[in-house]
Amino acid sequence: MPISYLPQSVNPLSEGNPRFDFERHPSIIVWELTRACSSGGRIFPRRKRDSFELSTREALRFIEQAVAARPSLLMIAGGDLTERPDLNDILGTAFNHGLRVGLHPVASPNLLKVDFAALKQLGVMQLSLDLHGSTAESHDHFAGVEGSWEWITQSLVRGKQEGLQIQINTVFTHQNLGEFEPMVQLIAKLAPDVWNVSQYLPREAAKPSELFNGTESEAFLKALSKAKLGLTCEVTTSDTPQFRRVSLQNSDPDLMKNLAAKSINDGRGLVFVTHLGEIRPGPHLPINTGNVRESKLLDIYRNNQVFRGLRNPALLKGKCGYCEYNSICGGSRGRAYGTTGDYLAQDPVCIYEPKSRPNDGTDSWRMYCDD
Ligand code: SF4
């Protein structure tokens, strides 16, 4: 599932909170409310609701846990969220508790029936949808769902008309790399608030031959960094935190403004809750650290050793451990885990050679991120 957990448009630091402390609170909670999906496709196979997913009562109880965690955003993701008949109750409860909520549903024909004005009234701030090609043909082929380009583009336009913040998520692989320039042009035309770009990780919905190697990934990120300069929206990445390093190397003024907020990574400002209530450091790091049915989300986030380890750049292995960019990058923990089975291992795709060496005391971008 491509995710959308870097909504700088609702960035706490941009609202006068100069020290958002990721040791104490996650900035983003991504909650996979359901995996039900009627349309099927590359990312989400067709399936019904899991009978063990959180019940309405458990979901409403979880909202209280989310409130206690004081995130800047609760991103409710799916699955086809319209498959949850209690969605409005959940949204209303979140709104009444003052949570800022975004929705990231998987596309299905049901999207065409969604009343975005009503969602806005229920406090939804952001609509996040996946678009992997600049035309119906290229997107539908990549997603493996005929008709989904139409459902998505119509929904983006309608959501924007109702005043929702819009995030478009695009995954690139060898298969759709030729779509990069046309996608940049489409993004300029659609003018979302955020364009979130990612690459598949090992063992995700792509064949190994579709994945970028280190050189290709670096070239891709440089092209993205260049394209960003011509776009008015924010450009973020998921599971490719090296983009921050590449952007800094290009002296990107936007990134320089707010480094700490942009250092979010698995377990560091981010926590993921599955449809079964399992608590994980991120959507692409499948390590269960507890379950909201019996554990407190905030307690796990603050104290579980997996989370604590992920927030300590010094524990990262290989060159990620001594890289001068590790506090704002840290590598993709999901890629490290998917490749090696070790969530603290060096990100195998990054080709950057750190200037520092282990424990040589070289200045680090950490000074911008640590209290
Ligand atoms: S070596 Fe690791 S921390 Fe440094 S830029 Fe590469 S992935 Fe990021």
The quaternary organization reads as single chain
**What is the residue-averaged pLDDT?**
88
Number of strands: 10
Helical run tally? 13
Strand content: 5-15%
DSSP helix fraction: 25-40%
CATH superfamily: Aldolase class I
Uncertain stretches of 5 or more adjacent residues: 1-19, 365-371
* Alpha-beta classification: alpha/beta
Total domains: 1
Main sheet record: 10 strands, mixed
Order of helices and strands: EHEHEHEHHEHEHEHHEEEHHHH
According to CATH, what is the class?
Alpha Beta
Shape: globular
Supply Rg: 19 Å
Present as ligands are:
iron/sulfur cluster
- CATH architecture type: Alpha-Beta Barrel
Distance between the termini: 33 Å
From the 3D structure, determine the CATH topology.
TIM Barrel
Describe the protein.
This protein is an alpha/beta fold and 371 residues long. It has a single domain (26-311), classed as Aldolase class I (TIM Barrel, Alpha-Beta Barrel). The protein is 31% helix and 13% strand. It has 13 helices and 10 strands. It has helices at 56-69, 87-96, 116-121, 136-143, 148-161, 180-190, 214-228, 242-249, 253-257, 297-303, 305-310, 319-322, 333-340; strands spanning 28-32, 73-77, 101-104, 124-130, 165-172, 194-199, 234-238, 265-266, 269-273, 279-280. Strands 1, 2, 3, 4, 5, 6, 7, 8, 9 and 10 form a 10-stranded mixed beta sheet that branches. α1 (56-69) runs parallel beside α2 and α7 (214-228) packs across α8 (242-249). The longest helix has 15 residues, at 214-228. The chain binds iron/sulfur cluster.
